[in-house]
Amino acid sequence: MTEQTQRRELSFSRVIDAPREKIFRCWTEEELLKQWFAPLPWTVSAAKIDVRAGGSSSITMRSPEGEEYPGNGVYLEVVPNERIVFTDAFASAWVPSAKPFMVVTTQLDDLGSGKTRYTATVLHWAAEDREVHEKMGFHRGWAQGAEQLAALAAKI
Questions:
Q1: What are the tens digits of pLDDT across the range 70-112?
Q2: 3-state SS string over the chain?
């Protein structure tokens, strides 16, 4: 990894006590994604996902005050039960977005005994975007999301 990449990257990793097949389902089934994706007290009010390379996603998060924040993107790579890579650089169908911000790679590594190392790596278009994302609460938000993901994966 180059120094320039390090200045644009944020990463989060934890071990989840669930097999990666269940975690993958939580990422790829709309009704499951809506249950964990936004760190509480935020919620996901709508999710439309076509999880395949070139497929689009539209996920709307709702603040505790009821404000809605839509996020659109495109999946770049999908390896079932192993990896999902997506970006907000495209709104849908390869239409460029107004302001590309990041590329996200979620990696699911099988640790055996029903445990999975879950790693989310976010590469930002600029170091300034990384800084903004970190100040928005990247580590706290992704950690809380992972807790919610782990709880859901354990019960499905």
A1: 999 999 999 999 999 999 999 877 889 999 999 999 999 999 9
A2: CCHHHHHHEEEEEEEECCCHHHHHHHHHCHHHHHHHCCCCCCEEEEEEECCCCCCEEEEEEECCCCCEEEEEEEEEEEECCCEEEEECCEEECCEECCCCCEEEEEEEEEEECCEEEEEEEEEECCHHHHHHHHHCCHHHHHHHHHHHHHHHHHHC
